[in-house]
Amino acid sequence: MSIRLKYLLEKNKATLEKFCTQNDITDYDLLVSFCKIKMINCDIDQKEFLEIFPKETKDEDVAIKKEVKKDEQKTTKSKKPSTQTRRRGRKPKVEKVRVANTKNDT
Predict the structure, then answer these.
(1) Which of 44, 48, 75, 85 is the least buried, fewest Cβ under 10 Å from its Cβ?
(2) How many CB atoms lie within 10 A of CB 5?
(3) Tens of pLDDT, residues 19-35
(4) Cβ distance 31 to 42 under 8 Å?
(5) Other CB atoms closer than 10 Å to residue 35's CB: what's the count?
(6) Strand residue runs (E) in 1-100
C-alpha cells in the first residue's frame, strides 16, 4: 500500500518546493521516478509541478554553471588547512581510601 504524496507533504507540514529541494529533484520525471522508488503515489500533475518549478532555458543553465565554477574556484583558493585541537582527556577517578571505624570498648 502506498501513501499519496500530497498527504505526505501535508502531514510533514512541507511544501512541494521544499520536498524537491531536499531530495534534489529538478524535473517532473525525477519526481515520478523518486515516488516509484519510495513507493509513494505521485498524485501531483505536471502542471502543478511546472507552476512551482518553471522550465529554465539553456542560456540560464549555462550562466548558472559558470557562476558555480567561479564559486568553486574561489572556495578552493581560500581554503586553509585547519589545525586540529587536542581533546582533553577525562580526569582520572579519585580512589577513596576508606578506613574502618574502630570502636573503642574501654
Answers:
(1) 85
(2) 19
(3) 888 988 888 999 999 99
(4) yes
(5) 20
(6) 3-4, 40-41
